Amino acid sequence: MKIGIVQQANTPDREENVKRLQQKIRQLAVRGAGLIVLQELHNGLYFCQTEDTGVFDQAESIPGPSTDLFSQLAKETGVVIVLSLFEKRAAGLYHNTSVVIEKDGSIAGKYRKMHIPDDPAYYEKFYFTPGDLGFHPVETSVGKLGVLVCWDQWYPEAARLMAMAGAELLIYPTAIGWESTDSDDEKKRQQEAWITLQRGHAIANGLPVIAVNRTGYEPDPSGQTNGIHFWGSSFVCGPQGEFLYQAPADTEIEQVVEIVPSRTENVRRWWPFFRDRRIDAYGDLTKRWID
Questions:
Q1: Catalytic residue flag (residue 113)
Q2: Is 237 a catalytic residue?
């Protein structure tokens, strides 16, 4: 199975960003990709560096303009595409939503980001209502896709629930990077933690993981911070956490990576974590804290 990933540096020109994505999807399809994953909020800049009510004008319905455009492209190229969009569900109700487009152009399903951060330069709680669709894989012609989004990466519970619901891949569209005032050592720790944790999801669940991050520098419109240098480093790893591909930090890439889905069965036979889970003893996981 061939996976296509697109790591892109975006500009304020949303139309130009989308045109470049279309070109790259076509190139990856020619190279044999059957599934193509785009980065988080791929149409424009990462707007959550500030709190600005005018930004809500960028949100769109699902189905809507972006799903229509990429649906036509999926049908043209015969590939499954994982999108990441700013969804307007109703007046005053918005989500960070991933949409899976089937190769025939239909919408196979969607996932609304469940964990919403609120940190300097990542003011997502201002824009996004937490998801309410739960952790359910999207069934497609290339398998059951466990799609999660960015901040969801840090939660083993999310990956586990997707795996328990039958996901055959874990997919993370992402927008994460460094604030320039952090020391080089701190930047390295953050990046390595991000990679290590997701490789851990692969190992703990015996599933391949696809993490697609944006790259490039985006300034803070308010001038309160030095902006974000997105650290790229998109990667694909196998069910033992082994790297199948890792992109550089500071370069746009469109890459095809081959995975072998049948390895999941073998790895889970060698490492039977699901067999040995003590589900009778895990009730306290539903609590906020154990006092």
A1: yes
A2: no
